[in-house]
User: Fold these one by one.
Assistant:
Number 1:
Amino acid sequence: MIIALDAMGGDNAPLATVEGAVLAAKASKHKILLVGPEKLIAEELLKHHKKHDLTSLDIEIVNATEVIAMDEHPAKAIRQKKDSSLAVCAKLVAEGKADAFVSMGNTGAAMASSLFYLKRIDGVLRPALSTMFPTIDNLCMISDCGANADCKPENLVQFGIMASLYCKKVLGIEKPRVALASIGEEDSKGNELSLASFALLKQTDLNFIGNIEGKDIPRGKADVIVSDGFTGNLLLKFGEGIAEMMLSLIKRGFKKHPIAWVSLPFLWTAIKDLRKKVDYSDYGGVPLLGVDGVCIIGHGRSDKKAVKNAIFAGAKAAERNLINEIKEAIAKHNAAAETVK
């Protein structure tokens, strides 16, 4: 697979992005296109020459003369900076020169560039930003988690279809359990959007298990959580805050009770497991589902490990034909919906 990486995207770029690309290339047969200012990227790449045999790695630099900052207005930046590292990545996929692109940069700009250059898949009403969320045993996917604050019921159904396919094709979950985020498990609970969405989701071929309350999401009762972007983003940010609070409370507890340090060697493995559970770098990045090409968006604070894993996520989605699978599923769903009408 050929993966275009926005080498200038993220708070730690190009240091983390270049090293992450080197690690990904070393651990796989994927070709990595490092997109950014050629001279700067070449200098950064040479820093790894002594540690890694760069001649054996399939890495190529693609020059891009502009960079979109994390705080720039997304749509405006994409219109004005057509030779930015992010825009060039999207164009490489659109032109068939790369199988996927990955960026740890400005999320809004990554979405805007995908819509501008890749376009929406035919029949998809709105693309969804779908993120991974830790549960007690594994992970679940929340779709949408911020791309669409205001939605219609049909949008939520499509989010469920696309996220379910991602879980199946990329995460290896054979029959993903799809649930609708609501204020109660009962079919009759929820606002107008959730009630109408529930009725439509029941008519699909998805493994729809009904409504799910917030407390049951971290318990791992579903693999896909369908929601509008407003609700999904609240769930995500609240979960991140709880995870950070728990880790802080553990640290505070040790400081408050010095004798507790005696037990630290016995607890360290459990603490490491907890940190790993809430560590976003393990899955690297999240997909923008519904655009006609693979786009993986990572956290702005991504380190080399997150970059490497985001590259692997993009490669796996491309290898397993995710985009065509979504095209077929959406076309089938839309045809069935028209028949019902």
Number 2:
Amino acid sequence: MEGELHSKVLILHHGAFGSSENMAPIFREAASRGLCAIGITRPGYASSTRREGRRAVNYFLETQAALNHFNITEFVSLGWSSGSPAAISDTQDARCKGAVTISGDAPRDSADWDSYIEKYPPQNPATEEPAFPSFDEIRTTGPEGLVKLFNHLLSQKDVEICQSKLGEDLSHASQHGMSSGDFGALDDLESDGAPWGIDLSQVMQPVAVFQGDEDRMCVPAHGYFLAENLGNAELILAPGEGHISLMYNRAAQIVDTAIELLNR
């Protein structure tokens, strides 16, 4: 948690293979505005206890525990990458004023998912088939090795972030999140590929869907699917941004959007 605690906060959900620490740019922007942000590290990551069989539909349970502990009355939920299902899950809590997804996963079990993949590819598709690194490689790689590690999965702007000082955020979060083993990542992958159990059309809180058009990990199809299937969503397409660069380069805009939702 960062910032002075108030009854209205931002809730942050991290991406896969990390912990709430890989939401560092959002924490920083929230703190600069005097707004409290609370990070939720999913079960199985870092020192958190595994909750085997967790699914998107019940991810909000961890959020509720934090809300009740800190006496939060209103919040906006933000999720990056595999944190997107958790942000959407949080809309089941009546205290949720809205959600923001950042390079977010969409449910892939829909009958028309393949049509989205065909219609909305990244603007800079990789020239070679990307190979995903092993969990051990993710757990042990420092900032100097990030570009080699993720290779063709990175856009040019992702590479720039990884090669900058900001790469320390990403490698530290992965080392922290994966330090206790593989269960957090394995449970994320299993849950991401399973039905969410959430009727997106019934989500009536406003949802801002931030999507980079050069994202090679959660390709643009994810953003378009969420925007078109959620009950009250707006797609905010960021030209030239990739999976990682979107959160870093647009952090101020993302937090301003979340604040706008919180104050509606």
Number 3:
Amino acid sequence: MTQESQIFVGRQPILDRDQNVIAYELLFRASAAADAAVYAEQGAASLRVIVNTFMTMGLDRVLGNHLGFLNVVGSMVKSDLIEALPRERVVIEVLENVEIDEELTARCSELDEMGYAIALDDWIQDDYRAEMVSIARYIKLDLMEIPRVRWRSVVRKLRKHDVILLAEKVETREAFEYCLSLGFDLFQGYFFSTPQILEGENADPARLEVLTLIQKLVTGEENAEIAEVLKRNPSLSMNLLRLVNSAALSPVSKIARIEDAVVYLGRDNLRRWLFMLLYAGGDEDALQDPLLQTATHRGCVMELVAEELVEGGVTPTQASSAFLVGMLSMIDVLLGQPIEEIIPGLNLSDEVQAALLKHEGVLGRLFDLALQIERAEFDTIAQTTAELGLEVASLQDCDNRAYAWVNGLSQPAG
């Protein structure tokens, strides 16, 4: 297996002031062991790896309808291979350690005139790239590297230019709200993409009904019992019938009965859609919510990896449970309650509970792996895949397929 076949793409959402996902930062690595956003070769060869990766994976599979922010070094900016990337889909991030010279500045101006958006990454107080502000469309302020007392003055200074300000490394709700008050346009950070216990309202009745259905599916209740629960909730029944009768699923004949819809859709697909309804809370726009997208990516990639490991001892039942663990891993954020208080009441198997609460067992290791992918901890990924006996290329394929599935959530009934 070549080094180029082992390229990973990490993804972190970028949100607007209403917390809608408008883009993703895509984090490239030269190998599974890399632990930072740098490249082994700072030239056209590395850029070719990026281009080839995009051609292989497909931007639509990774980004859906969103923009992609790409980290690039100076030599990549200067290379004409960067023009292989579609200008309407990408933002070129000039890294904080790039050497600014006349050639680089001229090249960025050229790319700007060609329609490529330029972002200055990890901007700090008194940043040495000030001469490039007039070229940039986005400036990403590194909140961890700028003293908090200076945030306002740095923002005020940059507001003199026609740029979109992005606050990165937003880690708490308080920091997010303060950045809102300062006038930031976009936001990025672990506050939006990693599970944190937040204050929230009690679960509404519809969500409790969905949780009841999920429990019945997990414990193997008959389809008739599942249908009875659905019948008690007209909204859920209508969602199910609309899904099954959609052009995407194309049943031979239109389905009118709940019982037939359950059978036609299948228990695995029903389980997936129930999880989507659980996180969406009945709001179709919530399918774009980073909470849902993070949970679904975890569940999907965990299940796909588990299926790859079936011949190595992982059972089909564990593969099915892997999806459940991934989806429930953010239930504490969704319901605003500690996960230790939620999980015991869901009648889950001991193995699933151990994975969620203690990261134990095979499912716990898969959970760890999903978190490592999400956080772009590629050095740790190499160790975990080796322990699981998983090929790096297989993990990359699973991750790609999971991204494609998550992006499909925002498509009609797809």
